[in-house]
Amino acid sequence: MTGVQYAITLKISNSSASVAHGPDVGRISVILIDRNTNRTENKLLDDEDKYYKPGDVETRMVAVQGTGFPPISAIVEWKYETNLFNPVTWRLLKSSSIFIEYLKIASLEYNTEITVCPKLHKPVVANLKTMMMPKYCKIRK
């Protein structure tokens, strides 16, 4: 297997639930899954914690070991750590989460692009792996 480059575009939801939850600080990791259920390694989109707020859109280039086929789904995880000195990271009554509207995953090697979303527009909760699939996306332009 060889390395494959992906352009991963992340959109943080601007839904009322996301806005009510507010911004959060953490890191997002992604595992890509192909049609044979082969998985890539777990890749962080950023090396350091990042401040995400509702409506944010960003694209990152990510290199992973190829599985031999383009991805058809992804597992996303929100990595979150409370920092005593940063009140933005304090979540006293509930788990930290992030409302991801979608991930667009494009590959030059495979000449493919898919968009995956969380089921029922649920948030990605800290340290819980969340399956994201194209069929969970509502129609977007």
Description:
The chain contains 1 helix and 11 strands, in the order βαββββββββββ. The protein has 141 residues and is mainly beta. The mean pLDDT is 88. The protein has a single domain (3-136), classed as Lipoxygenase-1, CATH 2.60.60.20. Strands 1, 2, 3, 4, 5, 6, 8, 9 and 11 form a 9-stranded antiparallel β-sheet that branches. Strands 7-10 form a two-stranded antiparallel ribbon.
Identify the notable features of this structure and list them briefly:
single chain, 141 residues, mainly beta, 11 strands, 48% strand, globular, (diamondback moth) hypothetical protein
What's the layout of helices and strands?
Layout: E1 3-12, H1 16-21, E2 24-34, E3 43-44, E4 50-52, E5 57-65, E6 71-79, E7 97-98, E8 100-107, E9 112-118, E10 124-125, E11 130-133
Antiparallel strand pairs: 1-5, 1-8, 2-3, 2-4, 2-6, 6-11, 7-10, 8-9, 9-11
Q: What's this entry about, in short?
A:
The protein is mainly beta and 141 residues long. The protein has one helix at residues 16-21, and strands spanning 3-12, 24-34, 43-44, 50-52, 57-65, 71-79, 97-98, 100-107, 112-118, 124-125, 130-133. It is globular.
Query: What does the largest sheet look like?
Result: 9 strands, antiparallel
Count of helical stretches: 1
Could you say which structural class the secondary elements and strand pairing correspond to? Answer: mainly beta
Query: Low-confidence segments, ≥5 residues, pLDDT <50?
Result: none
Approximate strand percentage: over 45%
> The CATH topology is what?
Lipoxygenase-1
Using DSSP, what is the number of strands? Answer: 11
Round the mean pLDDT to the nearest integer and report it. Answer: 88
CATH superfamily: PLAT/LH2 domain
Helical content band: under 10%
- The level 1 CATH classification is Mainly Beta
